[in-house]
Amino acid sequence: MSWFGNIRTFHASALNLLAGSLAKCPDLPWEKVQRLVAHCPPLPDSSSSSVVLHDRGLSGVVALGLFAVESELAHHGVKVLHYLLQLLESLPRASWVQNTLASAKREGVIVEQFCYKLGLILSQIAATNPSHSSKIVKALLDVLQWFCDQFIKSLSTTPEEVCYETVPAILGLARAMKGTAECRAKAFREICGLEGEPEGGGGEEISFTFDTGDIIKLKNMVLRVTGSQQLKHLTSTAEGLHEGAGQGAGLPYRSSLSQVLHCSLVTLLRDIVTSCTLPLDPGFYHQLVKVCELEMEGGVRELGSSASASSNERAFHVICILSAATDMLVWASRNDTEIDSTFHRLSSLLTVHTSRFNVLVSPLRATILEGISSLAVRSQTLIPAALNTYKDLLYSSLLARMYSDAVASGNMESVLTARPTSFQMLTSYRLTSVHVSRADAFACVQWTLGQVVYSTLQAACEGGREVMDGFLASLGNKLYTTDANDNFALRTAECIVMVLGHVASHMGSKFNVVATVTGMFGQRLFHPTSSLDGKLVGELARIAAHTADPETMEEVVRLMSLSLGESSPNKEKKYGHIYQPMMDSLTFLARYLGDGEQRRELLLKTLQQFIQQGIMAKKASDSTQSTHKATSSSFSLGLLLPIIAGLAERVEPFTDPPKKVIVIFRDFWLYCVVMGFSESAGVFPAGWYRSVQAVARKSPLLLSMGAGQFLDKELELNRPLRIESIGQGDVQEARQSLLDGLDRSLELDRLVVRLSFSQCLYLISIHRLETLRLETSTKNFPLVFNYLEDKGLQGELWVAIEKIAHKLFDQYIEQMQAKTATEESAAELESLTELLVFKFNHIRGRIKQLADKFISKVVDKFSHLLWSRRVVYTMLDLLHQLSLSLHTMDPDRRRSLVVTLPDLPHSVTVPENATKREKTVSYFAQRVEQILELAMRWSPRETTSILLEYVRSVASSAHHSGVSLATAQINNYFDLNPHNKHVPPVVSESRPSCVKDHLSLLSSSLHRRTHHSGEVAGMMTAASIMAGVSPGNEGREKQETWLNLQLYLPRNSEMLSGMGLTTSW
Question: pTM for the whole thing?
């Protein structure tokens, strides 16, 4: 069975790929389209004959529909649409080949599949081609009406025909036409197996529309079916087939088929009617109101009277019918009398208990709330009554019980940010079970309640803010008078807090709502201490994230300090109950805080709190006489790492920050080192290490910031770990840790022995930070030179930094070797080599030596850099610029000079002393010669070509040191010509240079390169002028250019033809 299913899937996928390819072809002949049509069901020869429909034919229809949509009916679209409409009209006379039982249960019977997919294709064509919309809508409604009429006449037909053909056809066509244009487009992509949006649907979305006659026709059709006796007996008919054997065993509709059909048609009518913008007859609205009232009465009665006997599936469809009826009732209520009647009807239904279906009824309650809000906004005299209705729901036992159940389920979010999607209307009616979590049920009602309160208050403020002030004051009074010992009252208060937070988040600075609400929260917070405090903290964070209010942000930071235990242990007992809510709030802020500057400030505040927590953890470890290792305090400290990482990921990197910021990050990295968070292997969760990596990406360099000789004292005074608490064992452990992280050597051992505890930790912090930064991106390696050039790092610290640089460079080489060779990785290596070439001429000798070692290592592992055009040009250009610093009139008054190259961010500071300048240029020239000689040995052809091109490209009539060196290298390579290579040295020495050298080849090569380069440049100029200039209208100068081109082009017609140009005018 699976093998057969794979064949079906392959057949459909292959046809869809063919359809997508054909849709992109310009001037497509009909014969190509017939390849798709050949896989579709053939149309009947006459109106009396039938068409055979099956799975494989459906795959062809879907592919043809995909072709039509993606090509926007550009290629034989009229023919394709004509075929699809004829196929739709032939559905009533179709002969169906039923699919297997497994396929029917998974996808539905073939009738529903065909009607749904064909109808969806036509709906999408109508949405993207408005000129065909009315014709398609009329055809869909005609076929739907035919099947509805057959259902009304079903007493004279067999049960199998009703349940296997008529009802599935109605369900499929209804599913195809319902929903929004976006939902239909998404469903179309799903049936075509598309991940993205079809090309034909990429423009402005236009929903296919129904005119007034279509809407009246659809309404009458739905009323006939839903009010018929056949609908009442449909469930028993289907159940009889289920109890039988054979064909009836494959019916996929396990719940009440009557409710399934009823729900399908009512929701279809709701979607079409409520999206109508055309004026309708007043009688239509009045009749629709009466119908909706009857639907609601019947649905409520069924839920209430037979709840114990009804299944969840049946109740779900009844609730969907009630929701659709509510939407239509609100939409159809036009005059004041109807609006008032509808308002009171909905208000009375809001808090009705429905026994065990309270969870499933949640989306219906949300729909009712939205209906009440819509009516209140339309008729502002109802606003006070609407606000009272909201308060009744807030204070009711129903909402408090739902909230308690949601909290008990363990899936409740700390802050509600959006309405849950689990209640969205299903596109299929083949339900075998319905399960909705209690958390989602409460969140659906609570979020909608907050939204409608906000909408209603906004409408109320149009006439003044008195109504809003009174409503907020009543909620604030209820909040402040809540008994902290009454669990039920606390649940109600938490619901009030969530509503107030929702309103303040959406109102923002309007009418001073944020200050009013946060003031209410401040009066209740810790007065007295209760579980309500955690919810207040969460909503304050929500307001801060959505409004960026600075005062609210300050309050959140203050509460963070209190909850995480900023000072005395007594505060832990008083504020410890808001620890977890505060952690959740910080996580929320890290994700949703929109203001960039506030994110940076919160990150720094959180880092400071991390440091304070570290001090407390250190004190705890000292009191138990333990060493600086991971303890239980480390775990509470590590819980802040994901929050810090979340904030760091959403801020820009800290480049050139003030000294205060560097000190904060330096202390942070000290604790990460001491507690072991910066190590990949350890007892802590792997997520903490990834969080530290995320912080490393944005962390500033831990430079001395000009501290110079006072850096050691600054480390002692400003670091969180006080010197008095450090023992000799701690010092030895820090030194050993530094040695273990670097390559051991005698020099390093002697160096580390002289380092203090604070210096060791500082160096380890730099090593771990830059290692983590390098792990995230190899492009970060050049930052190491910032430490080497830091004038505040002297003596032993600088030597240790040099060892760290060696270690990091080895790691860089390993990571680059592990990468796949691409243009990007090659460019990165060339960029690093250019940097090393500049650092080779650094004014500090140790940095110069280090750069020389790095150059040797990188060309040893990536030898192609030796003959890299970019690297060779940079070396020769820099050599020339450095040589220019030697040519001054007064050698004794030379000043320091900064040498740069165009389009490169690097620079070289030339020494002030004349002798040192001479040495710099001499050493660099020797090093360039060595590199070029090595390149000539390994890749002579490529290197010679690059050097020749460099000599040709330099346009200078004066001396150029780079050209001279390149010419000398070429001359050395050419040495003797072929005639003299094998002549004995004694004879060769007696011959003149012009006889034995190979300089003629050099001159010839340069001449040919220059000649052909000029020809190509001329042809490129000719091509640009021919494309944009014509003789006689661009001035005398361009006319002369044009005449010159006429003389030039005929001699080069063959070359121009090869470039796709022509010399004909």
Answer: 0.80
